[in-house]
Amino acid sequence: MNFIGAVGGDGDDSDDKEKEEEAERERQEAIREAEERRKEKHRKMEEEREKMRQEIRDKYKIPKKEEIAEQQQQEPDNPLMRKKKTPEELAAEAELEDQDEFTKLKNTIETQVNELKSQIESKCVMQ
Q1: Cα 101 to the chain's mean position, in Å?
Q2: Alpha carbon distance 109, 115 (integer Å)
Q3: Which Pfam family would be a valid example here (predicted)?
Q4: Cα separation of 30 and 36, whole Å?
Q5: Alpha-carbon Rg of the chain, whole angstroms?
Q6: Cα–Cα distance measured from residue 95 to residue 105, given in angstroms and rounded to the nearest whole number
Q7: pLDDT by residue (tens digit) across 38-95?
Q8: Which residue, 74, 93, 117, 118, is the most exposed by fewest CB within 10 angstroms?
């Protein structure tokens, strides 16, 4: 019976890891290329639509709205890569949405009073 290498392996781990890393790089590159092709396809379709819209505008003498440029500026390059919000940030946003105008006003007044109080206390020193 020969059990050499039956349990521990033959040392091919580095080769396997290199192959896996190469396969992952190729997969990521394929995904990126597919995304670029999709974006190019949609850009061309949008150009064709805009050409048709412009022909209709010219025909009926309708002025063009400049909303398209504003929407493109607000959209990030890759929405999947945007910064994720922490649970604290999400909780803070939810708390702000829950507050009504009176509560917001009350909180701003309280913070301003506390700031003034701390400024006055820092200037007045008890001996």
Answers
A1: 30
A2: 10
A3: Synaphin
A4: 10
A5: 31
A6: 14
A7: 999 999 999 999 999 999 989 998 888 775 555 555 555 566 666 778 888 888 777 7
A8: 74
